[in-house]
Design goal:
The chain has 8 helices and no strands. It is mainly α. The chain has one domain: Rna Polymerase Sigma Factor, Chain: A. Helix 2 packs across helix 4 and helix 4 crosses helix 7.
Length: 182
């Protein structure tokens, strides 16, 4: 955390290399979090860039208050996603995967179906459960980091994660049973 603090402080003073280091360290996590929330690769890329533009504009105002920089960063990402979803007035959008050359169409179709089923199952979760799933599994944050990003205790994050995973397992098992005629 001390090393991160030093990088953040250098970025606050306008050090482009320090900001670049923060960008490189967090870009993929922020992108994955946003991707699972909005479901569109193009939107996720645009929103991730918006997050880092907001960070660049406001990093000078960041103050250390006993929580890691990542908690502040993910709060910005969360707010950007909420604003986007409000504008879209649709809630969660289904994940879309673009076909890449040389991919077996049958495998691609199966993957899309799996992603679609996961998205439908995620839509049945509460907003808080979706946030926890996105931060824990898409962004790869720990329960402590997720709690700080959402302003919740670790216990609350664990409870939300547990109930979300139980609901997802139940829903996906139900669909699998339906497909097999059970």
């Amino acid at each position: 955390m001390q090393e991160e603090r030093g990088v953040v402080e250098r970025a606050q003073r306008g050090d482009a290399q320090a900001f670049s280091r923060l960008y490189e360290e967090y870009f993929e996590k922020i992108y994955r979090y946003i991707m699972i929330r909005v479901g569109s690769r193009v939107d996720a890329e645009d929103l991730t860039e918006q997050v880092f533009l907001k960070v660049l504009e406001s990093i000078a105002s960041f103050k250390w208050r006993g929580v890691p920089f990542s908690a502040w960063l993910f709060r910005i990402a969360r707010n950007v996603v909420i604003d986007h979803l409000r504008k879209a007035k649709k809630g969660s959008l289904p994940l879309s995967e673009s076909a890449s050359g040389g991919v077996d169409p049958a495998l691609l179709a199966e993957k899309r179906l799996d992603i679609e089923q996961l998205n439908l199952a995620l839509e049945k979760l509460t907003q808080a459960q979706r946030e926890v799933v996105a931060l824990r599994f898409a962004a790869g944050l720990s329960t402590a980091e997720t709690g700080r990003a959402l302003g919740k205790s670790e216990g609350a994050v664990k409870a939300l994660q547990h109930s979300a995973l139980v609901a997802l397992r139940k829903r996906l098992a139900q669909w699998q049973g339906d497909e097999q005629g059970i």
